[in-house]
Amino acid sequence: MRDDRTGPPGMWHHPVQQVWRVAVGGRSTGQFTDLDDRALVSRVQAAYAAACQTPISRDGGFWLNEFAALKQAEHQSLLAGTAGPMLRDPARSHLFHGFDGLTSGSESDHKLSAAATYDGLLQLAAATGAGRLHYPEADEAGPLPDVETTLRALDATLGIPVTFPNPFPDECGLVTSRGIATFRCAQSLYQAWRITRLVSARAAPRIVEIGPGLGRTAYYAYQMGLRD
User: Fold this and answer.
1) Is the pLDDT of residue 43 over 90?
2) What is the Cα–Cα distance from 201 to 221, expressed in whole angstroms?
3) Spatial separation of the C-alpha atoms in residues 208 and 45, rounded to whole Å
4) Would you tell me how many other CB atoms lie within 10 Å of the CB of residue 185?
5) pLDDT top residue among 192 and 141
6) Are 41 and 30 in contact (CB under 8 A)?
7) Stretch among 1-5, 109-113, 210-214, 221-225 having the lowest mean pLDDT
8) If we measure between CA atoms, which residue out of 29, 133, 33, 136 comes closest to residue 87?
9) 137-153 per-residue burial string, b: 16 or more CB within 10 A, e: under 16
10) pTM, to two decimals
11) 189: Cβ contacts below 8 Å, ≥ 6 apart
12) Which are the contacts of 164, defined by CB distance < 8 A and separation ≥ 6?
């Protein structure tokens, strides 16, 4: 393998320069801004207030150490019932810190985020059979496919149109015709695909996800036919 390790370690399995040339970075403008989400905001705030009364919240735990210190403003906003603006635009707060990259002060480089995301899609394509696995000893394999070619191959293999909804502004990642693809999208697509294979022998599978983040895995799994 050539020693062209100028990017993140996850990209060392294929020529880094090609990934950087193919990946175009950008930020999302946010979707669904015209929806009336007041009932949902109230539900989230009420659920958070109730959760804060449980023993695990009162007595301590992993999320009550450095995370609690970082998220004091967010905590108070949720308890006070004033979290609407924060929930609609999480890039202006630390609300997502710990499970997503869309947080205040995350100086995400468009190019780096795009390259890492595209690398994830390449690995997803190789894992599912939608794309070829890079063979580092054969330089004649040619350049990497552009992102749209990769997405069309994934459509056919996964059995769904792969899309990237961007409900929030300033999501940083890979520019595609289907939305801004962020770093965790490829991971969630892979997880959903693996779930479908693991439960394929069951007539009515039931799945529980512990720590769902923004719900991307559930979103893709639902599209792949998993309803419970």
Assistant:
1) yes
2) 16
3) 23
4) 26
5) 192
6) no
7) 1-5
8) 33
9) eeeeeeebbebeebbeb
10) 0.83
11) 124, 154, 158, 162, 220
12) 173, 176, 178, 179, 180, 181, 182, 185
- Three-state DSSP at 174 gives strand
The alpha carbon dihedral of 84, 89, 95, 98 has a sign of positive
Q: In what order do the strands lie in the sheet with 172-176?
A: 25-27, 172-176, 179-181
- List the chain domain ranges: 9-29+106-223, 38-92
User: Token pair of 40, please?
Assistant: 């949902």
Token couple for 206: 């039931």
User: Is the CB of residue 217 less than 8 Å from the CB of residue 192?
Assistant: yes
- C-alpha distances in angstroms, 190 versus 11, 163, 167, 194? 17, 14, 21, 6
Residues in contact with 108: Cβ distance below 8 Å, sequence separation at least 6, in sequence order: 101, 172
What tens digit of pLDDT does each residue of 154-186 get?
999 999 999 999 999 988 899 999 999 998 999
pLDDT tens track for 69-127: 888 899 999 999 999 999 999 999 999 888 888 888 765 566 778 888 998 999 999 99
